[in-house]
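Supplementary Data S3. Sequence and structure tokens for construct A.
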Amino acid sequence: MSILTLILLFPIIGAALVAMLHKSARSSIRAVALVATGLTMTAAIIAFLGYNGAMEGPGGYRFYQKIPWVTSLNISFQVGMDGINVGLILMGAIVSFSAVCVSGQIIDRIKEFHFLILIVITGIMGTFMSIDIFFFYFFHELALVPTFIMIGVWGRGKDRNYATYKMTLYLTLGALVALVGLVLLYVQSGAKTFDLITLTEQLRNNQIHPDSQTTIFGF
């Protein structure tokens, strides 16, 4: 199993454990969230320090792992680390752990808060490491949906509900537009896959028509 998959699993397992705890077990809930994000950060640091050219995998990605999912559409769970996301994964893990560390100020609905923040962290980590466009989109939305709830429930200021509705409207419309663009890319590329490695090779050898490129870029 890739260390990137472990980074993704720690907050998921943490969220599952928090869901099983009684809401009165506040200390246990915080402890689970701290351990889960602490392990995520530790694994991210190990991956960051272990990132080197000697571990190069498919497409130049390190710590690569691929698990087929929907074979008819060539959708697979794929994770990998390159020179761009190596810093993002580390930064996301550190910020996630820090966010849980300062969550002691949350006094209402502690169980729900820590469950949602662990789901958000899962989405963030998945977005940074996914090299399959389908899962990139899935994890991106997984991080956004709980964010709406958290702003509405635990946000500060009298306009928090307005901010929640505004954010929901803008990001939902943006996500739908992006989805259209991803579908167009899937169709126009001719690769019939969401795999970024395969798409890169396909588009390097068979470029999409300039007009189609302009349309996809617009989305």
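Construct B, processed identically:
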Amino acid sequence: MRRDDSGIPARNLEGPGGIESLIQLLAKLPGLGPRSARRAALFLLKRRESLMEPLSRALRETAKSIQVCSTCHNLDVADPCAICTSHKRDQSTICVVEEVGDLWAMERVAGFRGLYHVLGGALSALDGVGPEDLAISTLVARAKSDAVKEVILATNATVDGQTTAHYIADVLADAGVIVSGLAHGVPVGGELDYLDEGTLGAALKARKPV
């Protein structure tokens, strides 16, 4: 019987219930192509009891338990999420991010103790993403609450991210809140010679008295 380079019989790589279906699903994950997906599948198969089966259970349990927060669109086991219901968070400040991964990044810094709002992406004419495709209307409704005093626009420093930030700033112009943005400039420990012109330009514009 013909075998592939992993030593698995070729017939096991065929059919909807075979290994090939696992490889095809893994290949859909970010950063994984066909070759890396095949290696990942083989790695899992060699560790069925210690890794593959626990991973399978975790995926099933997560798929059943994780919900989208109806307030900020974060992912959590409860709706509203733990951040929105925490009495230790500053209810007067909302940090706007594009994706849940950006929220997680902000939380790792541990320097922000306010609330969040996940847009679900950024405006993009090229990809056909308009304001109605993002959670902008719910953000406006939250910003008009008497408790909210400031909205921080923490979208990515890309063309689409900055376009989104400018659009939201315009929409919130009459909401009666302070609209601020993250400073962009020289990173901590960065050397000027290694920075691109855009980063240096942003640093100059965001300069402050010493």
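The radius of gyration is 23 Å. The domain at 10-65 is CATH 1.10.8.420 (Helicase, Ruva Protein; domain 3).
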